[in-house]
Amino acid sequence: MSDFAADPSHPRYQSLLLRHRLEEAEKQGMLAGSAMIAHGRGEAYDYLLGEQTIPSAHEATLHALRALKNAERPIISLNGNAVALAGEQLLALAQQLKCPVEINIFYRTPKRMSALLERLETIKKERSLDVEILGASPNARIPGLKGPRAKCTKEGIIDSDVILVPLEDGDRCEALVAMGKTVIVIDLNPLSRSAKMGTITIVDELTRVAENMLLQFDSIKMSEVSKTYDNEEALRDALRHIATKFSD
Ligand code: PTJ
Questions:
Q1: Which residue, judged by its Cα, is nearest atom 31 of ligand 1?
Q2: What is the pLDDT of residues 179-218, one digit of tens each?
Q3: How far is CA 150 from CA 6, 81, 102, in A?
Q4: How many CA atoms lie within 13 A of 89 on its CB side?
Q5: Ligand 1 closest atom vs CA 187
Q6: Quick one: which of 20, 102, 163, 178 is 20 to 30 A from 184 by CA?
Q7: Is the distance from CB of 88 to CB of 242 less than 8 angstroms?
Q8: How do beta strands 151-152 and 140-141 pair?
Q9: Roughly how many angstroms between the first and final C-alpha of the chain, as a whole number?
Q10: From the CB of 15, is ligand 1 less than 6 Å away?
């Protein structure tokens, strides 16, 4: 990171680092106008969760990884915040899964698309990754969604069976579920529409989830039968965790 000067021993180091990544991404034209607001909302929930991966989120992460590894056509959907915060980790995860990533943004402009593509190509080159990056030339639309945010690719999002969508919006999540996909949402807000709509919702911070998935990747066997999983219970657990934090 160019001019990031905070000391790793600083108690807010991780939070400052993520903010810095967003500031840099903003300068490069990658972010939506409301990206910082979305991040601030996430930070508030993370603070309430104790800035940690709670046990139910860890379980959800393992369950999501199982679904991704057992998928026929997994894909990772990337938006501005996801590329800015965890672009390197998510491309590394795609490499492990041997799946493409697709840039699919809510506030779609040609300028943002090219800034995001450029950033991902740089990561690929720097880390010698062999990952297909889709989204530059959309040739399909997500059914049921209006506007540019519906633009996607047939060979990517449309034909996927399991899709990882960090920081998704509720409508698109609902539309993807309606298409019959297993939708894995990462969202610190257990009350958001996306969290409620997702097939598997991981209530945890994106960079921690990506890191955990990379760390746990080899421990999940391809043929492992999916254990039963209750998404609503995982959301309730996150809310209980927040509530009990204050009664301790
Ligand atoms: O790049 P675009 O155009 O696709 O736009 C991306 C944003 C994130 C701006 C857009 O999708 C948006 O406005 O999202 P929302 O509706 O504000 O939802 C973002 C959700 O992500 C909120 O519920 C936040 O709590 C959550 N969130 C924010 N940062 C993180 C997070 N969850 C996990 N990890 C984070 N770092």
A1: 42
A2: 999 999 999 999 999 999 999 999 999 999 999 999 999 9
A3: 39, 18, 13
A4: 16
A5: 32
A6: 20
A7: no
A8: antiparallel
A9: 38
A10: no
221 CA distance to ligand 1 middle (Å): 31
Q: Is the CB of 85 under 6 A from ligand 1?
A: yes
Rounded distance, CA 199 to CA 222, Å? 20
Residue appearing with tokens 């894995």: 184
For the stretch 134-146, pLDDT in tens is 999 999 999 999 9
Tokens standing for residue 236: 């309730």
Please compute the mean of the pLDDT values over residues 220-243 and round it to a whole number. 86
Q: Is 205 in the pocket of ligand 1 (CB under 6 A)?
A: yes
Do 142 and 152 form a contact (C-beta atoms < 8 A)? yes
pTM above 0.85, yes or no: yes
Place of tokens 């959301």: 235
Residue 25 · residue 41 · CB < 8 Å: no
Cβ-count burial 132-170 (b if 16+ within 10 Å, e if not):
ebbbeebeebbeebeeebbbbbebbbbebebbbbbbbbb
Q: Is 106 in the pocket of ligand 1 (CB under 6 A)?
A: yes
User: CATH for 55-245, among 3.40.190.10, 3.40.50.12640, 3.30.470.20, 3.60.10.10?
Assistant: 3.40.50.12640
Distance CA 181, CA 173 (A): 10
Going from the Cα of 22 to the center of ligand 1, the distance in angstroms, rounded, reads: 12
Q: What is the CA radius of gyration of the chain?
A: 17
- Residue 88: strand pairing partners: none
